[in-house]
Amino acid sequence: MPQSSTPRLVLMRSTQGQILARARGYDREVITRLKQVPGRRWDPRHKLWIIPPTIQAREALEAQFPEVSIPPRRRPSETAADSQDRTHPPSPPSSPDAQSPPAKERAALLRRMMELMVLERFSPRSRKVYQGHARRFLEWLPGDPFQFTARDVRRYVTHQVEERGVSRSTHSQILSAIRFLARKVLERPEPIADLPTPKKRKRLPVVLSREEVARIIDSVRNPSHQAIIMLLYSSGLRVSELVRLRPDDLDRDRGVIRVRSGKGDKDRYTLLSERATAAVDVHLGPWKLRDESPRWLFPGKGPGRHIHQRTVQKVVSRAGRRAGVEKRVTPHVLRHSFATHLLEAGTDLRYIQELLGHASSRTTEIYTHVSNQTLATIPNPLDDA
Prior knowledge:
By secondary structure, the protein is α+β, with helices and mostly antiparallel strands. Helix content is 46%, strand content 7%.
């Protein structure tokens, strides 16, 4: 990296050996490079990055900032007072038992928030996301977590958008988490009464051609992986729905799959392809030989556990690269392709909505913008010249 383009960065050591990094003023290039360091995290209260004292993190930091010298770890003989003079501000406490009273109050709020989310039947994923955003907001607050104001919320959201560059979806999640915290936990709706919600960016989904889907399927040799890809494409399943499928969810006689507790905790039926059924039978062959039936259609590594969503994502992504598809291939891209190909084949939009499990028809209508059903009938002026 050229020396002249390197942003200025200050590195310090915490009392626990962590590397504390702070740029002299806001610099997006510094943030971009710091995000390449594994294990790094932003401390909103002290306005600095905390980097773990691991070999991998140190090597990544040296690679991104070769011109900055990393301070050595302090010797045991150094006193805490000496170290705090050089590493101010100190790193956050590592255990709840050592927390100050405000930190204990934050922990109590988060426990109460989790209890309410469980009672309102939030999904485990939603609970994790909401609590993470609420925890970071409460840690950022300088004062009493019970008395935050609308100005505090506006400043925090502005910090997240301007300095951290969060996406629109993350922006909405932050507001939803703080809104739940204020209304449900603290019963104080005034801090979030006038907060504007960011407008959703209208993006068209990535859609594969039928030829690209065929190449992806043909490129897979593992029977289980092939069954996964076939089901995702031929049934329009979300990855979270596929991993929770049970063998008896496949109704072979009727040619449908029962999706249990899909998005919004709703059951529905979707299509079951004959080719996908044959692929599933090959996948289940080892269990049939042992006269067994697994609890999950795609078992995971642990006993009684299903395959992890991240594993499915990796299987699909690798298959796309192996097939030479230039588009980024994900399980949701296969779902988009399923819906678009049905629409191009003349399937009514209402039926596609039911198969996908969309609550609103407006969500399904996005596929009318990527379908070539109408575009294919328009003569191109270059071809007619």
